[in-house]
């Protein structure tokens, strides 16, 4: 009887291995820290809903002065302003020194990490973004592009000299954020603008959307379990015949691909994954369903991806991936 039970367990694992999604996906992704990327998309979604605007996540704005591209967590565009949002997921007591730099606790006991002045940094990014928009033909009035720092962690306890800075949004403010029905502005930021500010013309707003949607930004890897990772898609890894099928899925030709559930073809161990991909169209935003094309590859094909703020290149099985969005 024990032999039959053992054989049954072995057969079960083999069938699960070949014909279903990998059972170790949870442990496979357990050491992946997607918290910052997840926060960026969560903050962006809430601002869009409350502010009736449009957010762009993970922009990489060219900065001639710095000689490199500058990362921006979130940019919110509305009819009244453009807001650069820096998201700091700090926990514990934080304080600012005389130069404005923030001191934050680390996982190690009694260890502190010094963060260069986040308010100064987000204002510098706002200035860089305004300069970049002007270079691409969108000249905005001075003060139209502003910078704000959001502290969304409920365990963050900022000192008084941080809390009183108007550019900083504390957790309680973020939690209670709501639209002011009279002015049409969020209660957090309405004090930053003069009452005479007029709405941006629709043509200017459309131009801003086009410029930012075609600006350099990080690729987005969406994983099962509602995880999002910003970074850089590098390549596919797998068997030669599958890589040959995937060789045209380059960022110059494709803007997004979606991984669908495995399907079975004929014989034992022939489980495959469907990849729907969207050809890139530089003339328009979005993709219609009629434009999607399809490729079928073995489910053990992998995506090689370099996560943002990580020195380690990661490999992700297609069975753990929902979609990949590629920047231009």
Automatic annotation (TrEMBL):
Pfam families in the record: NERD
Domain of life from the UniProt record: Eukaryota
Domain NERD, first and last residues per copy: 35-152
Xref: InterPro entries: NERD
PANTHER family assigned: SI:ZFOS-911D5.4 (PTHR35287:SF1)
Protein name stated in the entry: NERD domain-containing protein
């Amino acid at each position: 009887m024990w032999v039959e039970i053992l054989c049954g367990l072995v057969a079960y694992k083999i069938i699960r291995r070949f014909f279903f999604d990998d059972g170790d996906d949870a442990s496979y992704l357990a050491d992946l820290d997607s918290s910052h990327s997840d926060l960026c998309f969560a903050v962006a979604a809430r601002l869009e809903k409350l502010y009736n605007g449009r957010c762009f996540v993970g922009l990489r704005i060219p900065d001639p002065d710095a000689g490199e591209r500058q990362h921006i967590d979130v940019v919110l565009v509305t009819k009244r302003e453009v807001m650069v949002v820096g998201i700091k997921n700090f926990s514990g007591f934080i304080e600012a020194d005389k130069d404005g730099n923030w001191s934050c606790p680390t996982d190690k006991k009694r260890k502190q990490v010094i963060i260069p002045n986040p308010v100064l940094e987000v204002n510098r990014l706002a200035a860089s973004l305004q300069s970049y928009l002007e270079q691409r033909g969108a000249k905005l009035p001075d003060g139209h592009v502003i910078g704000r720092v959001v502290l969304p962690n409920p365990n963050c306890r900022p000192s008084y000299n941080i809390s009183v800075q108007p550019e900083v949004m504390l957790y309680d403010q973020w939690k209670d954020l709501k639209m002011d029905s009279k002015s049409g502005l969020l209660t957090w930021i309405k004090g930053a603008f003069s009452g005479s500010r007029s709405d941006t013309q629709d043509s200017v707003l459309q131009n801003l959307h086009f410029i930012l949607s075609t600006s350099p930004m990080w690729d987005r890897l969406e994983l099962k379990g509602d995880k999002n990772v910003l970074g850089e898609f590098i390549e596919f890894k797998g068997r030669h015949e599958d890589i040959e099928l995937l060789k045209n899925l380059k960022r110059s030709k494709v803007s997004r691909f979606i991984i669908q559930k495995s399907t079975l073809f004929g014989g034992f161990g022939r489980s495959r994954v469907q990849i729907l991909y969207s050809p890139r169209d530089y003339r328009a935003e979005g993709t219609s369903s009629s434009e999607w094309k399809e490729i079928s590859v073995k489910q053990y094909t992998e995506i090689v991806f370099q996560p943002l703020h990580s020195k380690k290149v990661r490999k992700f099985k297609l069975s753990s991936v929902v979609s990949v969005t590629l920047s231009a």
